[in-house]
Amino acid sequence: MAVFGTSWRVARIAGIEVRIDSSWAVIALLITYSMYLRTSVLYPELEGGGAVALGILATGLFFGSVLVHELAHALVAQARGIRVQDITLFLFGGATRAKVESRGPGDEFWIALVGPLTSALLAGLFGILAGLGGDLLSRALVGTLGYLAWTNLLLAGFNLVPGFPLDGGRLLRSAIWKATGSLGRATRIASLSGQGVGWLLVAAGVAFLLAGDLAGGIWFAFIGWFLVQAARSSYQDLQLQQLLGGVEAEEVMAADLVRIPPQLSLQQAVDDYFMVYDHSGFPVEEGGRTIGLLTLRGPAGAQGAVADPSGPGPHGPPR
Ligand SMILES: [Zn+2]
Question: Which of 70, 108, 251, 286 does the annotation list as catalytic?
């Protein structure tokens, strides 16, 4: 998504690159601080250090849950033969980059569904741990586990909202795609629905602001605005892909090839070819066979010329 700035690779899990976007640092600090506030208010029996440690543990488990949600998407995509580019944790959670719409609606359906399912499973797991730990663990630890159960349930529920690019929006898109056979129409409807959900969140943010909840208001408006932008740009991306996908290389390639013999000196190549023709590269031919590509690179001119026997072919400007 377009919000990504600088990101760092932090891990590789099952062959999938996990990255952290710079925007994530902001939310990680905010959540750690709010988790600390929550623990220190709810469990005054904890010493100062205890509340900090529990706050950090809760934040770690929260982001761990987000990562497991994303890994579920990525692993199902891989299992269905779709290459996963990477997983990035950023300001609003996580994102898995894979061309899920590259094939049929079935792939997108299962890849999208497994995310909220995993969050619901995690909610159950934390709930069970909180229940079992009642006698063994401290009140603060049990309370934190219960809180994580609710957070994961909320994550599952929010992701099921049918607005693209949320998982629910992807489910909606796959269903319309299946019904109409048109990925374009399905994406347009799911994107409009995503923009609608985004504007609703913005409206909710304004309502919170008017009610005097500054932090909640800003946060909801911010998420809503992000969703509107993401929904809009994912439809535009698809339009661009379909546009480029419909053009064949033959239609834009330079067809008037001028070939260079391999014995030509670079000085001659510059004087007789690069200065004469409007091409940035020339195939080098010997005995009717292309053996390389001579291109100009950088202001150094012919000094930067390279012969690349595996080159893709001439890349002169389209005419
Ligand atoms: Zn998801």
Answer: 70
Residue (of 196, 166, 168, 25) closest to 96 by Cα position:
166
pTM of the shown model: 0.71
Residue 108: how many other CB atoms lie within 10 Å: 25
* Counts of helices then strands in the chain (DSSP H, E): 9, 7
Ligand 1 centroid to 55 CA: how many Å? 25
Q: What is the per-residue pLDDT across 128-166, written as a single tens digit (0 to 9) for each?
A: 999 888 777 788 888 889 999 999 999 999 999 999 889
Residue tagged 């001119």 (tokens): 301
Q: Is 70 a catalytic residue?
A: yes
List pLDDT tens digits, range 2-47: 455 688 888 898 888 999 888 888 888 888 888 888 888 888 787 7
Residue 232: its H or E element: helix 214-245
CB 101 within 8 A of CB 238: yes
Given a contact cutoff of 8 angstroms between Cβ atoms, the answer to whether 99 and 125 are in contact is no
Q: Cβ neighbours of residue 3 under 8 Å, at least 6 residues apart?
A: 21, 23, 90, 91, 92, 226, 229, 230
**How far is the centre of ligand 1, averaged over its atoms, from the C-alpha of 22 (Å)?**
20
Taking the C-alpha atoms of residue 205 and residue 227, their distance in angstroms, rounded to an integer, is 13
Centre of ligand 1 to C-alpha 315, Å, is: 40
Cα 38 to ligand 1 centre (Å): 27
What SS3 class is residue 310? Answer: coil
pLDDT digit string (tens) for 183-226?
889 999 999 999 999 999 999 999 999 999 888 889 889 889 99
Q: How far is the CA of 69 from the centre of ligand 1 (A)?
A: 6
pLDDT tens-digit readout, 39-54: 888 887 877 688 888 8
